Amino acid sequence: MATSLPGTDVVVVGLGAAGGVAVLPLAQAGLDVIGLEAGDALTRRDFAPDEIRNNVRDWPMAVQKANQEIPTARPNAQSPTTRMASHPMMNGVGGTTLHYWAQSWRLNPWDFSVVSDTKKRYGASRIPAGSTVEDWPVGYDELESYYDKVEWEIGVSGQAGNVKEKKDPRGNIFEATRQREYPMPPLRWTGWLEKMADAAKGLGWHPFPGPAAINTRPYQNRSACMYHGYCNRGGCHVDAKNSTAVTTIPRAEATKRLKIVSRATVTSIDVDNQGRVAGVTYLLDGQEYVQPAKAVLLASYTYENTRLLLLSKSRAFPNGLSNNHAQVGKHYSSHHTLASVIALFPYDLKAWYGLPAQGVAIDDFADDNFDHGSLDFIGGGNLWVYSDRRPIAAANMNTFGRVPGWGSAWKGFIKQNADRWNTAYIQKSTLPYETNYLDLDAEVKDPLGFPVIRITAEYKTNEERIAAFTQDKMEQWYRVAGATEVVRAPLGGTMLPSTHAYGGTRMGDNPETNVVNRFGFSHEVPNLGVLGASVMGTSGAHNPTLTVQALAWRTADHLVKQWKAITR
Amino acid sequence: MSELRFFSRRDLLKTAGAVGAAVVTSSGTEIGAGVEAEAAQPSVRASTGAGSSVREAHESLTAHEADTLEAIVGRLIPSDAHGPGAREARAARYIDRALAGALAGSVGAYRAGFAALDRYCRTSKGRLFVELSPPDQDAVLTDVERGATTGSGFIGSSSAFFNMVKAHTWQGTFGDPYYGGNANFVGWSLLGYPGVRAMVSAADQQLLERNQLQPNRRSAYDFDGFNKATARADEPHTGPDDRPHNDASDTRREGVATTHGD
User: Fold this and answer.
1) Comparing A504-513, B26-35, B121-130, which segment has the lowest mean pLDDT?
2) What are the structural domains of chain A?
């Protein structure tokens, strides 16, 4: 028997990167907010530098909701599905920002207007066949003030390359103009990173340190980064990683307007007889609760956002909430971050202490930063080398065909080379396609009996061409820096569950092809907002989190400003 | 801009465990001490040395299975001119303990795999795996890795068994010694990993780059303040009551007071 709770102004489903940011402007505006989070509150005590727990065993100290609803995946509708052993995201107050890499990029203006910019510069024929890409209904200029707000609110370190149209070669000269510097200087470089930067300069490229939501000096009463080497899928033991759990969420709680309910699994978003959202139903310790709200913001990550909408069926929405135009689950893509390049050097890189956000970026080949006139693809990739090594991962290094995978010869190889290799992280512009989508898996269910998400998606020709092009550039860079062996990962394949998962509830002006409007509210359900990368129609060549957070702030802002109109 | 109180250069030089103070703050000292005492247990046991002379009770495996596992890990990462290997690291102890907890789901695959391995050895070489010479053991393991012995009774394929044992051997050799492996930091020494630290200053990094940074031989749980429950090898998280969420938010707030930002 469900327990009916007293109503509130806003329910936010999920307190991660997106929901964890949105609660702050809502609470500051005086709205009563209930944050429903499937996970627990974790703290610095939970964040021991322990590779087995963090990287091998997948956070056993956290609530295992996501890991019980791992999406299945298949490349196309004709193929059988496979299922990964773990979900890339996790549950907890702060969500995956607790252990993310914390790279905090702004997108390029091109990412918001791929269609019109491509037509203008190269002609309409250059839009890849089968792509459902549209221009975003919001552009960089409109988002700039929200990027700025989030950078200062959570704390982002970095080197600006374009403040008010003034270029600074120490930063990213390709970035769109920003109103001011980052609040903190960038993470330091190691000797090897300096060497990589010099090699890039020798090629005529423009290396710079990447932006990170990691403190490089004490900021807002929290410590600077300790570079201890366990940041990759590890929580921060000194709160220098600016997860929403240590930034916006506690600030929202301080207003007394935010109430957090942890270990709450939302099972449906409920509508009234006029088709407006009435609240949500959730489970907590086996008990069912109904939480009425005047507005609901869905912020549970791309897969769960899509799944919750599809599972929330009603008379008004027989195919799932906000799905009367059959757009929920469409325009999906997993960011193309595969097709990496691995290099072996004849010297130690001294990479044992560092973090994935500490590195050298090249944006010369990202998005439309270079001319594609004579190329057979649009978009591009950001090249990223970074200082990050842990012992088990090091022992699992590629042996470049030189020795077998075990035994004495392997041992001799590993003894010499454990600290001599690097894997580049190359994020590539990824577009949505008609045949790439999410729906519910008819066979695989979570422990509650609800179907999990099924990904039907694969990397298409345009993305594979970007991959081949950027691998060439990456190999060139490694070779100039002295690499003696270089291997390349495959160019494409099935889009597996990803930490950079876009679409499913795309944002756009046209309700026939988009789930949410330009402010992130449902075209069909006016008091339902959706937060997260599920609203993004293109990926760009950079990590999504800062854009997700800027959009979340903007959606919350819109709700505050239009409170009466939206909630009636 | 003030420096963090607990990370002054002097503190840093004084003790590598400085972070414990910042994590726990004054009220947490006792908790921290408790963590350290308990976490020290595996290290103490680790220091009793490796090899078959020390016979411990096994948590998951029979004596013969344990002997077989010891023989396998000893071939995967042998003791040789490059130094001690997986036997000395007590990788088999890591696996045995984990099979009673986090890796409990793999017990069946191990049990069937050991039996199938012996079946294959008896058929092809007339002896059990543990009775074979090291070159013969290597030859058998190569067959197992290739999947050539799948018909002998392995769950899935023999290469799946091989890959599983290899992955767990790597964890037991190169993982934190808290879990019963990497005894005497054998694995970390082999890789040249200079050890777990709570803080690595720019000066430390420069020492590392000049090959002058001294290895720090500690488990993560030798540092004060980390919740041991969250790292237990025994059980994956099963519910809200098997880990403390006592003062979650208080810790966060207290931590704020130890720093002076802008």
Assistant:
1) B26-35
2) 1-74+89-100+105-155+243-328+501-568 (3.50.50.60)
